[in-house]
Amino acid sequence: MAGCLSEADFVMVEEGFSTRDLLEQLTLGTSQAxxxxxxxxxxxxxxxxxxxxxxxxxxxxxxxxxYAVKCNNSPGVLKVLAELGLGFSCANKAEMELVQxxxxxxxxxxxANPCKQIAHIKYAAKHGVRLLSFDNEMELxxxxxxxxxxxxxxxxxxxxxxIATDDxxxxxxxxxxxxxxxxxxxxxxxxxxxxxxxxVGVSFHIGxxxxxxxxxxxSIADARxxxxxxxxxGHRMHILDLGxxxxxxxxxxxxxxxxxxxxxxxxxxxxxxxxxxxxxxKLGRYYVTxxxxxxxxxxxxxxxxxxxxxxxxxxxxxxKTILYQLSEGEYGIFNSVLFDNTCPTPxxxxxxxxxxxxxxxxxWGPVIDGCDCIAEGLWLPQLHVGDWLVFENMGAYxxxxxxxxxxxxxxxxTYAMSxxxxxxx
Length: 425
Ligand code: PLP
Description:
Elements: E1 11-13, H1 19-28, H2 32-37, E2 40-45, H3 46-59, E3 63-68, H4 75-83, E4 87-90, H5 93-101, E5 109-111, H6 118-126, E6 131-134, H7 137-146, E7 158-162, H8 182-194, E8 198-203, H9 214-232, E9 239-241, H10 256-270, E10 278-283, H11 285-288, E11 292-305, E12 320-326, H12 336-339, E13 359-364, E14 373-380, E15 388-391, E16 412-418, H13 419-424
Parallel strand pairs: 1-16, 2-16, 3-4, 3-10, 4-5, 5-6, 6-7, 7-8, 8-9, 9-10, 12-13
Antiparallel strand pairs: 2-11, 11-12, 11-15, 13-14
Helix pairs in contact: 8-9, 9-10
Pyridoxal-5'-phosphate binds next to strand 10 and helix 11.
């Protein structure tokens, strides 16, 4: 690889290394004084991102991947994906600036937010970003007014119509807020025509954590109908955007391969090879979730006696539960507890021996709020302030979410990449 990412951006490791090895080195090498200062950090395996990319190309050969920057905007991730040739889906001006700063050309950026701030539309116009999404009449009018490329005979602006999906079974739903219903599409396509705006395609998002891969097939079928409406009105429709929602972890309920097979069949049926439609997807969690591991240290600890008359623990003491406080919580890096209903499981730096007693334990974030609970009902050995806990699969919607409410700073990220992955990219 050469270009956006260089060997200075990461620690080169040999094949067979594990992120845990690196974490261990970093936590063991952390002096007491540093632990007091740095209470959480990530280790990111960029090789895992590279492997995900090749898996994507193999499973969905007709789909061009774009990366949803909001999911994890860390420089290592953006650089490696730019290096691999991905396009970028940006939700605002800051994200467009970020990817342009690392050398991504405007032609590889989609401003994919159906509700945009006027200043951000103007920024897109000034910096050559011409592919934008919309899902309502007001937005169309706003873009026409604020994006100079929308005016005149040589209209360079291209708009993608974002349609709603039935995402009622998805863990995180997007169509509650975004996307137009099928029955309102014709009206919007007519409005665009009247305003001389070229609608070039359709996008959707089935939501994240969708248990039914057929949701993609249904939305692809809906998109076909909208393509036909658009063509009847004279729009040159040639972009189909499948959105995100592809799982980022190995043990997902519905596997990526299963989804790919449904998507490929639906594409063959509704958008067969040679139909002239450019098919793309805007993936977030798929690329980054499993690549990031988080280490968080215990910053405070409290033992609470459980008042259960007549109940004693084996050693004769009263039963107790231990509350551990971490520097990150639900209002920061562990927001998935709130939004995705996850139950983060810590990995202990040292596996407890079978003789070690286990105690009822819970993990809490730093905000003075009874809701800031990360995990309850755990049975852990006695841990201490300054001990590190490790959490895997922490790459999506975590970076940049440091608990500002709890006074935390942005977490440091140490990137690693194996020599083999570096060679294949
Ligand atoms: N595209 C859009 C418009 C989104 O809003 C999102 C995430 O919210 C994504 C793509 C990425 O979704 P995911 O992380 O589930 O792949």
